[in-house]
């Protein structure tokens, strides 16, 4: 199973770069996850082209918070995945989101705009960074999870041409 992962898109409407990113990286995904700060209901509707699961973030307005919960646990391919945005200072963010999900195999989170893919004990900690929002990393990024006999993750750096209007 292929899972495309976004976070911190911070878009007030569906943009041509988001459409290109979706077509190039997410259209063939079995599931698309968004770890919060979507910012617009139109973007949620655009991403929901099949199996979409998202959560709200600290920058999401009330109309997004009405349709996306602050956190959720999913079972995909026999693995338990915790999905949240996170909040507060980037310092200790990972330990705060870890406490939300004591019994999962993967935690997908956002908020920091910094991509993360590593194991903390038996749990894969995964932050896709930001594909379209401001990046605190050297490039805009999204994430891909592969679910099978095990779960693996990879961060995809997006080329600058993805963002040309």
Summary keywords:
165 residues, alpha/beta, five-stranded mixed beta sheet, globular
Structure notes:
- The protein is of the alpha/beta class.
- It has a single domain, classed as 4-Layer Sandwich (Purple Acid Phosphatase, chain A, domain 2).
- Helix content is 18%, strand content 31%.
- The chain has helices spanning 16-26, 41-47, 62-65, 93-100, and strands spanning 2-6, 31-34, 52-54, 71-76, 79-84, 106-108, 116-120, 123-127, 141-147, 151-157.
- The strands form two sheets. It has a five-stranded mixed sheet with strand order 3-2-1-9-10, with no helix packed on it.
- Strand 5 (79-84), helix 4 and strand 6 form a beta-alpha-beta unit.
- The chain starts with a strand and ends in an 8-residue tail after the last strand.
- The model has no long low-confidence stretch (mean pLDDT 94).
Give the SSE map:
Elements: E1 2-6, H1 16-26, E2 31-34, H2 41-47, E3 52-54, H3 62-65, E4 71-76, E5 79-84, H4 93-100, E6 106-108, E7 116-120, E8 123-127, E9 141-147, E10 151-157
Parallel strand pairs: 1-2, 2-3, 5-6, 6-8
Antiparallel strand pairs: 1-9, 4-5, 7-8, 9-10
Task: Compose a concise summary of this entry.
The protein is of the alpha/beta class. The chain is 18% helix and 31% strand. The strands form 2 sheets. A 5-stranded mixed β-sheet has the order 3-2-1-9-10, with no helix packed on it.
Number of helices: 4
Identify the CATH class. Alpha Beta
Q: Name the strands of the widest sheet in spatial order.
A: 3-2-1-9-10
Ranges where pLDDT stays below 50 over 5 or more residues in a row are none
CATH level-4 homologous superfamily: Metallo-dependent phosphatases
Q: Which word captures the global form?
A: globular
Task: Tell me the count of domains.
Answer: 1
End-to-end CA span:
32 Å
Relative strand content: 25-35%
Helix % is 10-25%
Rg estimate, integer Å: 14 Å
How many strand units? 10
């Amino acid at each position: 199973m292929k899972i495309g992962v976004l976070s911190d898109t911070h878009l007030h409407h569906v943009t041509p770069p988001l459409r290109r990113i979706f077509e190039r990286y997410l259209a063939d995904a079995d599931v698309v996850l968004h770890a919060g700060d979507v910012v617009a209901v139109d973007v949620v509707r655009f991403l929901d082209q099949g199996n979409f699961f998202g959560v709200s973030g600290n920058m999401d307005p009330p109309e997004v918070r009405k349709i996306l919960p602050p956190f959720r646990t999913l079972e995909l391919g026999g693995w338990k995945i915790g999905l949240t945005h996170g909040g507060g200072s980037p310092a200790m963010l990972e330990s705060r989101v870890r406490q939300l999900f004591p019994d999962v195999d993967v935690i997908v989170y956002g908020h920091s705009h910094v991509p993360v893919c590593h194991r903390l004990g038996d749990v894969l900690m995964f932050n896709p960074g930001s594909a379209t929002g401001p990046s605190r990393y050297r490039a805009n990024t999204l994430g891909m999870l592969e679910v099978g006999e095990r779960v693996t993750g990879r961060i995809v750096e997006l080329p600058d041409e993805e963002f040309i209007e």
